[in-house]
Specification:
Spore Coat Polysaccharide Biosynthesis Protein SpsA, Chain A; eight-stranded mixed β-sheet
Length: 197
């Protein structure tokens, strides 16, 4: 199994690279990798700042088609992943549930995509993708609006419902997304350490 950390965002709302902002004294990407290592054997990082992440101790790859958003990161992760199934996690989702990820990886053997849908919205950067998605991804990346969810109409998808996901933890914590300094401050005051959430 491979875990792919998507750390290629521009972090415009945060004002600095989100991968390195600290929670409980540790860079967010370090916390994510530590948690991800409980689920998978292999870990790779996708980033357009590979030099900044060279010290992380894991292979770092850039987007094959630069400037096309998270879907380009997923494409690169699928190309470079050394093993399957493959779970992708954005570097701004530090409180994800290890049991939920393990459950999704089990389901991924039978589907092209396994993705949660929470409060009516997909969580496409907290999902499993199969290498079989690659032929469909590149044409989407060449279009004007390379949104990840456009892929879902072309492949077999297993949706993790809120009811399913809630069996593995608190939805507000698991899918808490850190985009702004205000989000970061809230994360720091949640009172939930990585090993507890």
């Amino acid at each position: 199994m491979t875990g792919v950390v998507l750390a290629g965002g521009r972090s415009t709302r945060m004002g600095r690279n989100k991968a390195f902002v600290k929670i409980d004294g540790h860079p967010m990407i370090e916390l994510i990798i530590r948690r991800l290592s409980l689920c998978v054997e292999d870990i790779i990082i996708i980033s357009n700042e590979p030099e900044a992440l060279a010290s992380a101790g894991y292979p770092v790859y850039t987007d094959l088609i630069p400037g096309r958003g998270p879907l380009a990161g997923i494409q690169s992760g699928l190309v470079h992943a050394p093993s399957t199934p493959i779970f992708f996690i954005a570097c701004d989702l530090p409180f994800f549930s290890v049991p939920l990820v393990r459950h999704m990886l089990e389901l991924a053997e039978c589907y092209d995509v396994v993705v949660p849908k929470i409060h009516g919205y997909f969580e496409p950067t907290h999902a499993c993708y199969s290498k079989s998605c690659l032929p469909m991804i590149e044409p989407i990346l060449r279009d004007d609006a390379p949104r990840i969810i456009r892929l879902y109409d072309q492949v077999s998808v297993k949706i993790i419902t809120e009811e399913d996901a809630s069996r593995f933890g608190d939805l507000q914590h698991m899918f808490f997304n850190i985009n702004t300094p205000e989000d970061l401050e809230r994360a720091r005051t949640l009172g939930v350490r990585m090993e507890q959430c």
